[in-house]
Amino acid sequence: MIPVSLQISGFLSYNQSVTIDFTQFDLACISGANGAGKSSLLDAITWALFGEARRHDDAIINSRSKSAEVILIFDYEGHRYRIQRAKTANKATLLEFTVQDDGKWRPLTEHSVRETEERIVQTLRMDYETFTNASFFLQGRADQFAQQRPGDRKRILASILGLEVWDSYRDAAAERRKRQESELAIIDAQLEEINTELSEEDQRRKNLRQFEEQLAQAGQLRKSMEESLGSLRRLADSLAQQKNMVDLLQNQVVSARQRLQANADQLSERREEHAANQAQVAAAAEIEADFKRWQELQAELGRRDSQAANFNQYQQQRSGPVTAIQTERARLEQESAGLLTQQGQIEEIQQALPGLDEQLDASEQCAQALSERLDRRGELEEQRQQRIQQQADAQSENKRLREEMRLLRERIDRLAESSGAACPLCGQPLSPDDRLALIADLECQGKEMGDRFRQNQHLVTENDALLAEFTAEVNALRQVEADLRKQQAQHAALQTLREQNAGRIDEWQSGGARRLSELKRILEEEDYAHEARAELAGVDAALRELGYDAAAHDELRREESAARASQERLRKLEAARAALAPLERQIAGLEKQVAADEKEVTAAEAKFNEADGQYRKAAAALPDLNGAEDQVRDQKERENQLRMQVGMAHQQVEVLKSVRARQKNLRAQREDATRQIGQLRQLERAFGKDGVPALLIEQALPEIEAQANEILDRLSAGSMSVRFATQRDYKDKNRDDKKETLDILISDTAGTREYEMFSGGEAFRVNFAIRLALSRVLAQRAGARLQTLVIDEGFGSQDADGRQRLIEAINSVSHDFAKILVITHMEELKDYFPARIEIEKTDSGSSAKVVAP
C-alpha cells in the first residue's frame, strides 16, 4: 500500500481540513511538538483503512467539529484506490470504497460498513493487526510483534508472508473430504439396503409359485360360474319377452280407459253448454231492454263531451295568470326569507358586541404587560456582556498564571535539587541560607499566584451559573417578544372585526329592516301581480256562464261504461239461439260412442289379467340372476388381483438382477470414495500449520534472521545478534517430540538470553531490527504487498550514537520501500531527512505543511 494523498477534517486534533500530498517525497520525517498531532496522521490512515485508531466512536471527532472525515488515496498492485470514511456525532459511520478505471472512480462499496471493511481487508490481503505489526512502528507499540506469544508470532508471520492462502487450501480440502465422507455414508446405506433386498430372493420365488397356483384355480372356477350364468340369462330373456306382452296389454287397457274418459268428459261439457244456451234464450227480453238503455246513455255522453271541450279551453286560458301570480309570490317569499336570515345574523352580532369589547380590553391590557416585561431585556443583556468579559479576563489571567506557576515550580525544584555554591538559575554565588530564603520567597510568590488562580476559578464558576440564568431569562424574553407580536396582531384583528360588525348593524337598520316590514304587508294583503289577477277574474266569469258540471259528466261516463256490457250480452243471445240445434245432434252421437268405449275397456282388462297371472307365476320360479352376475364379477376381480400379485411377485424376482448390478457399481464407487478421502486427509495435513506453511516459515526465517542481524549489527556496533527458535522441548521429559514455537533469542556480550529479558534502548533496537527485517524481506519478495514503512517516536530511548545508527539503518533500506515516514519531536533530527511534514498546533486545531527539496 503506497499512500498518494491524505485529506483530514474534524478528526482528533485536526479541526479544519488538511491535505498531505505524498507524491512530493519518498523519505520524510513528521516533526512537531508533543501533542501537536503527529501520530494523529497515522491514526487517520488506519481509521480510514480499518476503522481502528487510538480513540473510537465519537471520541475521534474534534471537540470543535460536528463530524470527522478522512479521505485516503493509495496505490496497490497496479491500481489506485480511494477510501472515504466519515463519522457524525451520535450517528453511524459512513464508508465508501472506490477504484479508478480510465480516470473515473468505480464504486466497490458493499451493502454495509462491515461488508465494505471486509472487502478492503480482502483487497489488501491483510487486517489491522498484520498491517501494524509489519509496516507501522506505532507510538508505544514498536515491540508489538516481539511481545506477542510465540504461537501468535507464528500466526502473524504467516499472515505477513501471505500464507493464509494455505488455510483456504486446507479448508477446501476439508470441505471436499466431508462431502466425500457424506457420499460414502450414503453409499454404505444403499449397500445395506441392497444386501437386505437380496436376502429376500428365496421368499420372493416361493411367493411367485403360490400366486401362480392360486391364479390357475381361480380361472377354472370362473369358467364354471360363467357357464351357469349363460343358462340363467337365456331363461331371463324368455321371461322378458313375456313381460313385454303383459306391458303391451296393460297399455291397451290404459288407452281404452283414456278414450272412454275423454268422450265422457266431452259429453258432459256439451250438455252444460246446451243448458247455458237455453238460459240465455229465456232472458231475451231483459237483455234487449238493457241494450236500448245503453244507446240512450251514449247519445247524452256525446253532448256532454262537446261541453267539456269548451270548458278545457277556458281552463288553459286560466293557467297563464295563475302561474304569474304564483311566480311573483314565490319571489317575494324568497326575498323575505333572505331578509329574515340577515335579521338573525344581525341579532347575533348585536348580542356578541359586549363580549368583543371585553376581548379588546383584555388584549390591550395583556400587550401592555408584555411590553413592560420586555423593557428589562436591555439591562439583562448589558449585565450578561459584563459577566462574559469578566470570565474571559479571569480565564486569560489563569492561563498566564498557570505557565508562570509551572516556571516557578521548575525554578524551586532546580534550587532544591542543587547542592553547589552557585545558583542553578543565574550562576551567581548562593549560600545555603540564601537558597532557602530564595525558595521561601519563590514559594510565597507561588502561593499568591495560586490564591489568585483559585479566585479566578471561583469567579469563572460563579459567572457560569449567572450566565446560565441570564441566558435563560433572555431566552424567556424572546418568547415574551413573540407573544407580544402575537397579542398585537390579535388585538388588531379584534378591532377590525368590531368595526365590521358595527357597519353591518347600521346598514341593516337603514335599509333591510324597512324592506322586511313592507314585504310582510304585501304578502298578507296579496298586493301584487295586479294585471294577472284581473285576467284571471275575466276567465272565471266565462266559466260560470258556460255552466259545465264536471261531476255530472263523470257520473254519466260511469253509467255508460256499466251499461256497455248489454251489447256483449245481446251478441251472446244471438249466438245461443243459433247453437241449440247443432249441440243436440252432437250430444246424441257422444252418448253412442261412450257406450261402445265401455264395452272395449271390459274386453281389454280381461285379456291383461290373464296374461299378467301367467307372467307372475313364471317370474316367481326364476333363480336370482343379479346374484349370479355379482358372483361371477367378484370371481373375475379376485382373478385380476391374483394376476397383479403374480406380476408384482415376478417383477420382485426380476429386479434382483439390476440390484446385483447396482451393488457392483456401488462397491466400485465406495472404493474410489475411500481412496479420495485418504488423499484429502493427507492434503489437509500438508496444508495445515504444521505442513507447507511451517516449511515456508522455516525457509523465510533464515532470511529474516540474516536481515535483522545485518541491521542490528549496525545499531549495536556489532555487539548484538538475534536468532529464531521454531521448536522447544516440552516440560514433560518423557516426550520425544518438540513443541512448535517462535522464540526470539538475543546474543550480546553477556551471553544469549530470550527477548523478554531486554528492556529500554536495547529492546527497541531488537524490535526495530526484526520489524525492519520483516518489512525488507517482504518488500524483496515477488508480489510484495508492504511498500510503506512508518516509525513513530522510536528515538527517545536511544542515546546520540544509537539515534545516529537508527537513521543510518533507515537510509540503508530506503530503496526497498516506496514511502518511509519517521515521526519525531526532536528538532536536531529534522535535518537528517530530505523532506519533512511539519505539524503545528494552533487555536483552530492542528495544521500540516510538506517541506520538500
UniProtKB/TrEMBL annotation:
Residues 404-443 form the Zinc-hook domain. Pfam families: AAA_23, Rad50_zn_hook, SbcC_Walker_B. Residues 177-277, 467-497, 556-686 form a coiled coil. It comes from the Bacteria. The keyword Plastid does not apply. GO terms for biological process: double-strand break repair. Keywords: ATP-binding, Coiled coil, DNA damage, DNA repair, Hydrolase, Metal-binding, Nucleotide-binding, Zinc. Residues 386-395 have a biased composition (Low complexity). One of its GO terms (molecular function) is metal ion binding. InterPro entries: P-loop_NTPase, Rad50/SbcC_AAA, Zn_hook_RAD50. Residues 5-218 form the Rad50/SbcC-type AAA domain. Residues 378-399 are annotated as: Disordered. Heterodimer of SbcC and SbcD. Belongs to the SMC family. SbcC subfamily. This is Nuclease SbcCD subunit C. The lineage of its organism: Bacteria, Bacillati, Chloroflexota, Anaerolineae, Anaerolineales.
